[in-house]
Write a structure and sequence with these properties.
The protein is α/β, with parallel strands linked by helices. It has a single domain, classed as NAD(P)-binding Rossmann-like Domain (Rossmann fold). Helices cover 40% and strands 20% of the residues. The chain is built from seven helices and 13 strands. The chain has a seven-stranded parallel sheet with strand order 5-2-1-6-7-8-13, with helices on both faces. A two-stranded antiparallel ribbon has the order 3-4. The protein starts with 7 loop residues before the first strand and ends in a 10-residue tail after the last strand. It comes from Microbacterium profundi. Pfam families: adh_short. This is SDR family oxidoreductase.
């Protein structure tokens, strides 16, 4: 049996992109990490460092929109690691490319289910665990995206969910005070992933209806920030943090 790590984390959406980078960085930093996602194959790849499965990684296939599966995820994590110190609420989808006039109810509902209801279910399970464990406390990091502050064109469903993450994070931070639970809204802009590469490779749609290439940054830089956040004492709260590729159209977007 491996020695229980001094701290542990759950990362949702850990099979690809930013989630994969964060999960690997936390493992390298010495955290016990549960990697959650819909497919075990990509999760297993993410849990391997230099091709070798990490001994402090636990893989749990999870659909974050399903409360039963979410509860199972957190139960398995605590069974393995004893407690939960950090939740990285990262699972999300871009949703339909549509303005409000073209947005179909099905696309709206599926985007809300993952980006908002899934985040709420995972945050709720984390809150209950962090509140009752001994010693109480923990850190919840919600992936908000810079769309929580400023939208891209034709992204009404995605943007709405990310604005809602701001309210979710502030409520967790407020209600968690008595239990040493802190919450961070992490707003990321143009971290280099397969999804972002597809979005900007032929030029990203701008507010004036033109398409222009945009700078990107290595997702590993975001992962480094998360590791730093995860390692901070709970007397430190970081309610909101924005990190973007330098020079991308965010400040002054449009």
């Amino acid at each position: 049996m491996t020695e229980t790590p001094h701290a542990s984390a759950i990362v949702t959406g850990a099979g690809s992109g930013i989630g994969r980078a964060i999960a690997r960085a936390l493992l390298v930093a010495g955290f016990g990490v549960t990697l959650a996602g819909r497919r075990s194959g990509p999760l297993a790849e993410a849990a391997a460092i230099n091709g070798i499965p990490h001994t402090d990684a636990l893989i749990v296939e999870t659909d974050v929109t399903d409360q039963t599966q979410v509860e199972r995820l957190f139960a398995r994590h605590v069974e393995r690691f004893g407690r939960l110190d950090v939740l990285v609420n990262n699972a999300g989808v871009f949703g339909p490319n549509a303005d409000i006039g073209d947005l179909a109810p099905a696309g709206w509902e599926s985007t809300l289910a993952v980006n908002l209801t899934g985040a709420m279910l995972c945050a709720g399970a984390a809150f209950r665990q962090m509140k009752t464990q001994s010693p109480a406390g923990g850190r919840i990091i919600n992936n908000g995206s810079i769309s929580a502050q400023t939208p891209r064109p034709r992204s009404v469903a995605y943007t709405t969910t990310k604005h809602a993450i701001a309210g979710l994070t502030k409520s967790i931070e407020l209600d968690g005070r008595a239990h040493r639970i802190t919450a961070t809204q992490l707003d990321i802009g143009n971290a280099r992933t397969e999804l972002i590469d597809r979005l900007v490779s032929d030029g990203a749609l701008q507010a004036d209806d033109s398409r222009r290439p945009e700078p990107t940054m290595d997702a590993g830089h975001v992962a480094d920030l998360v590791v730093q956040l995860a390692g901070m004492p709970l007397e430190v709260s970081v309610p909101q943090l924005t990190v973007t590729a330098a020079g991308m159209p965010f400040i002054g977007r449009g």
